[in-house]
């Protein structure tokens, strides 16, 4: 009982912790003003007054609400009088009914309804604003009160309608959901106490173990996904889940999945957004790479592994020199049916050469060889110098190449290698007649 009442307060009431401006001795709860010391039962639409909850206005404009604990009735079939919190025995109900004046009923659309009777109707002046809304009415002291009710989404094989609710229910779950709020309280109170119950456990929809958590279930409303309750040393603490705003989620159109509390982005939307970001980054990188290549072409000679002859009368030879914090040259050439990627490290006195055979845009064979720098400069004088790099970036590129090529196994597309090589951040080399790094 405690858990249901507490949860309903969390769902429907707004408690003001601040005093009314100019009125320090008054409180506000659900839009109504109360004096300090005043006690009342709050009203929660569409369920009406909550007799099991007592709220008190404290000094400073603070509202304190507590739920009433019901004793276990000493009879096999307790009754639940309208307007009262706790179930009592039948004899006591009959005595109370004798002392009370009978309340007038209501007449509507040719039907008669008793005081307190709740029923659905589509013949009122109320009009729903959404497809999932319907109209519920209650007879209260001769007056008919109607309101719009929003139906929760349900997933089941068969849907049925009942006389006490305008929202459809699952046919296979009808007998479980048929319990209204009062019946639910009775069922909780009449639950047998298990043998292994600790004092730290909680009584809420049966007995819950200490430190356990759950989503409460309220009669026809079903499981409340947005409310999480926890049992802590015999006390039940419930809190409403805080959902992120739509603009805080990583997708443009987040959706509410049936059964969940908050809107989420599905996997496709996440992948689309990630792919869009990646494509934007790739385009920006390509633009930067193109501009860098143009600058290189203007400022320095191209496509020479070893020496370059200047256009002066006294012909002088220039050689590529390693950039700062670099230890090897990078060469790459794509020509017809072959593709070559080479690394020349002056300190090692040998050059690593990776040669791929290309057939119809796919890599059919790869050969890895090593040769001396002198033989390399003589045999591969046509290769283009991309620039220079260091050992760390070289290892990273080799690791990525091996991993990517192992995935596609045989006949990988040549563009796979080209993409990886383009991502290698090479540094611009300088050209001189004599280099201290062994470029000559």
Automatic annotation (TrEMBL):
Gene Ontology molecular-function annotations: BMP binding
Transmembrane annotation, as ranges: none
Keyword Signal assigned: yes
Spans annotated as Disordered: 271-309
Listed InterPro entries: CHRDL1/2, VWF_dom
Short name of any one Pfam family annotated for the protein: VWC
Assigned keywords, A-Z: Signal
Residue ranges occupied by any VWFC domain in the UniProt entry: 25-90, 104-171
Leader sequence segment: 1-16
Gene Ontology biological process terms in this record: cell differentiation; negative regulation of BMP signaling pathway
Highest taxon in the source lineage: Eukaryota
Biased composition range(s): Basic residues: 271-300
PANTHER family: VWFC DOMAIN-CONTAINING PROTEIN
Protein name: VWFC domain-containing protein
Organism: Patella caerulea (Rayed Mediterranean limpet)
Lineage of source species: Eukaryota, Metazoa, Spiralia, Lophotrochozoa, Mollusca
């Amino acid at each position: 009982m405690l858990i249901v009442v507490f949860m309903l307060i969390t769902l429907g009431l707004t408690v003001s912790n601040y005093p009314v401006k100019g009125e320090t001795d008054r409180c506000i709860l659900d839009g109504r003003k109360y004096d300090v010391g005043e006690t009342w039962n709050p009203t929660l639409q569409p369920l009406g007054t909550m007799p099991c909850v007592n709220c008190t206005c404290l000094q400073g404009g603070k509202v304190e609400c507590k739920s009433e604990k019901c004793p276990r009735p000493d009879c096999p079939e307790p009754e639940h009088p309208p307007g009262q919190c706790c179930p009592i025995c039948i004899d006591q109900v009959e005595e109370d009914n004798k002392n009370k004046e009978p309340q007038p009923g209501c007449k509507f659309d040719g039907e008669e309804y008793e005081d307190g009777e709740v029923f659905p109707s589509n013949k009122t002046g109320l009009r729903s604003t959404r497809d999932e809304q319907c109209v519920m009415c209650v007879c209260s002291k001769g007056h008919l009160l109607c309101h719009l009710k929003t139906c929760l989404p349900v997933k089941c094989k068969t849907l049925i309608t009942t006389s006490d609710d305008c929202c459809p229910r699952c046919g296979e779950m009808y007998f479980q959901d048929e319990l209204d709020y009062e019946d639910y309280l009775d069922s909780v109170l009449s639950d047998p106490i298990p043998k292994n119950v600790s004092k730290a456990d909680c009584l809420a929809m049966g007995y819950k173990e200490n430190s356990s958590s759950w989503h409460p279930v309220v009669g026809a409303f079903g499981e409340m996904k947005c409310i999480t309750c926890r049992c802590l040393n015999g006390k039940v603490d419930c809190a409403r889940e805080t959902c992120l705003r739509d603009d805080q989620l990583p997708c443009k159109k987040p959706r509410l999945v049936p059964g969940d509390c908050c809107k989420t982005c599905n996997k496709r939307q996440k992948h689309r957004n990630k792919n869009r970001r990646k494509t934007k980054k790739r385009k920006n990188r390509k633009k930067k790479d193109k501009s860098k290549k143009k600058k290189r072409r203007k400022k320095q000679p191209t496509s020479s592994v070893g020496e370059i002859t200047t256009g002066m009368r006294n012909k002088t030879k220039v050689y590529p020199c390693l950039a700062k914090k670099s230890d090897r040259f990078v060469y790459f050439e794509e020509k017809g049916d072959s593709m070559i990627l080479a690394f020349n490290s002056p300190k090692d006195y040998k050059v690593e050469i990776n040669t791929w055979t290309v057939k119809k845009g796919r890599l059919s064979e790869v050969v890895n060889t090593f040769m001396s720098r002198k033989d390399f400069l003589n045999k591969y004088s046509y290769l283009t110098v991309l620039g220079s790099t260091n050992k760390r970036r070289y290892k990273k590129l080799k690791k990525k190449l091996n991993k990517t090529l192992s995935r596609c196994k045989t006949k990988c597309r040549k563009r796979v290698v080209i993409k990886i090589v383009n991502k290698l951040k090479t540094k611009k080399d300088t050209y001189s007649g004599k280099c201290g790094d062994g470029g000559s």
